[in-house]
Design goal:
Length: 361
């Protein structure tokens, strides 16, 4: 084994107040609002989820970013993939990454994932559009590129073979996506980079047919990618039916062992390089209440067992990254950060697995 597989955790920046959320959801709204108000949906259901020492942090504080960086490093999480929101020139939730960019002393390796998608009141079952995702032409590509370049040029930014890594959450929805990627690739070379490294995110709605010709790789976003394939059927159901399934069902329970076994037994389904995914838990009832989905039976011991297999798989196949969902998706019950129930055990599981393979290398 010549290379180490780095563990990259998806990172949500919605832990600070913004004007738009105040207008849409009420004064003072952040992700913590949903987390604190969550109610148990069944007997023994751990809700609300409480961060260790009730650390309901604000991402506009540099001390919080420093704490997260030090905690990740201590427990062998190699970097964060931070969600980035761009609506044809309009930025939302950008202040934490701008703050990170400003404070070079924070040792936090990172890359960005353009979480492109229309925002609506889906949490409450309504269809009202809050902000529509639109895509401009070359003028917007250039404006977007100039903003992203500030991060690409940062020494902490994660790269593959010198190419800055950028994830696209819904590449299949981006108008003229391949042309946009080619444009950005050319612009990167003008600034001395060998190009840009685009990774498409495989979620519930996309498969082999939707991959862009100009992307370099894809990543399996777990557990949603597997839940959709295993329990709904990727090739048999149309997108409208899946959306209807998500919006009208009552609480949907899936077994943790079942999901993980399907993740591990699945063979690569795309010709492109595929980065594997992992997840500690999933429970989005804090956002969707009884309309949510929970993966039951999760605990740090089971996570360690399955993460070990997924990490070993990535390591021996020479994958540069293994993506974990997530560092801090508290509203979706997918987080590595310590809580009152399990403390640091999920982070300890990652550290123990990585140290084991370093010793056996």
């Amino acid at each position: 084994m010549e290379k180490e597989t780095k563990v990259i955790a998806f990172y949500l920046p919605q832990y600070h107040e913004i004007e738009e959320n105040n207008r849409w959801w009420g004064k003072g709204f952040t992700e913590w609002t949903n987390v604190k108000s969550a109610k148990p949906q069944y007997n023994g259901h751990y809700q609300p989820k409480i961060p260790l020492n009730k650390n309901y942090y604000n991402l506009l504080n540099c001390e919080t970013l420093q704490w997260q960086a030090e905690l990740a490093k201590k427990y062998s999480v190699d970097g964060f993939c931070i969600y980035h929101y761009w609506f044809e020139g309009k930025k939302i939730l950008e202040k934490p990454i701008d703050l990170l960019l400003e404070h070079k002393e924070i040792d936090m390796p990172f890359c960005l994932s353009w979480a492109n998608g229309t925002w609506s009141r889906t949490w409450t079952g309504e269809k009202e559009i809050l902000i529509e995702q639109t895509y401009g032409g070359k003028k917007d590509w250039e404006e977007h590129f100039n903003y992203l370049l500030l991060f690409f040029q940062d020494s902490r930014y994660i790269k593959i073979n010198g190419k800055p890594v950028l994830l696209l959450y819904k590449a299949y929805e981006i108008e003229n996506c391949s042309e946009m990627i080619r444009y950005w690739d050319c612009r990167m070379k003008e600034y001395g980079f060998p190009g840009i490294y685009i990774i498409e995110t495989l979620t519930a709605m996309n498969g082999k047919s939707s991959l862009e010709t100009e992307s370099q790789a894809c990543v399996e976003f777990e557990p949603l990618y597997t839940v959709y394939q295993r329990f709904v059927g990727l090739k048999k159901i149309k997108r409208e039916l899946w959306n209807r399934f998500l919006s009208k069902r009552k609480l949907y329970m899936v077994d943790y062992d079942d999901v993980w076994k399907n993740i591990l037994r699945r063979k690569q389904q795309n010709e492109k390089k595929t980065f594997y995914g992992a997840f500690p838990e999933w429970d989005n009832t804090a956002r969707k209440e009884s309309r949510g989905m929970a993966v039951g039976g999760a605990n740090p011991q089971r996570f360690k067992k399955y993460f070990d297999q997924q990490y070993q798989r990535s390591l021996y196949e020479g994958k540069e990254f293994l993506f974990v969902n997530a560092w801090n998706e508290w509203g979706e019950g997918a987080y590595l950060e310590p809580d009152e129930q399990h403390g640091l055990q999920y982070l300890e599981a990652i550290k123990n697995v990585k140290e084991h393979y370093k010793k056996t290398d």
